[in-house]
């Protein structure tokens, strides 16, 4: 089984690319979705988060906005949060790989925002980096409700620079030229890695529409 990593800095188009890979019938493990489950009511990370960041748990679930405000401007606090969350997410990703290896899947995807920062690339045979010019990244992120320039700068300061990720990744997918173009770039990569299986039932779908 081959493992394809998918990563990219904030707003570069990772979730969009992950959805496209799902449409190509690839199993995708979404680290962000795993964090959402861990933080929801009854989630495995809630007690540890409550102990470390008491103001960030409201009615039994983690309030992500509050937690984000507490950690993105405080690197030491972010490290404490990561020490709680990353081992749990890693265990889920490993279980996902075991399950699909047993099912003899030829190619699976690990979608991890902090792939390089957490050493997740060591689990992968190749890594796809989604990337776009910085001005486009800013435009996209600043459109999100509640996002400010300060928060964007704080998040970016905590992430490996895009240029360093570009240096490391085996495949670059440029997301600034429309979704149809992104889809075609991804399809080419998947065909290279999984040459014997038809990649997509949706060929010809107009993703720019
Ligand atoms: C701080 C939290 C609660 C903020 O949640 P919120 O919903 O407001 O933002 P979201 O998760 O969508 O993240 C916004 C952007 O910040 C980036 N980001 C998230 N965590 C980190 C981190 N530890 N270091 C650098 N960038 C990060 C994301 O990749 C994304 O680009 C959340 O990001 C979190 O729990 N982060 C720590 C866990 C983690 O490292 N997750 C990322 C990969 S598993
Ligand atoms: N390939 C693309 N072509 C055009 N627009 C795109 C593309 N990918 C993403 N976008 C737009 O950019 C914005 C951010 O995309 P997305 O949510 O996929 O980013 P992300 O990298 O997952 O962000 P984050 O790391 O913050 O979770 C969305 O508004 C989306 O429509």
Automatic annotation (TrEMBL):
Pfam families assigned: CoaE
Q: In which pathway does it act?
A: Cofactor biosynthesis; coenzyme A biosynthesis; CoA from (R)-pantothenate: step 5/5
Q: Tell me the compartments it is located in.
A: Cytoplasm
- Positions binding ATP in this chain are 11-16
Tell me which SUPFAM superfamilies the record gives: P-loop containing nucleoside triphosphate hydrolases
* Entry's family note: Belongs to the CoaE family.
For this entry, the protein name equals Dephospho-CoA kinase
Source organism (scientific name): Aquibaculum arenosum
Gene name per UniProt: coaE
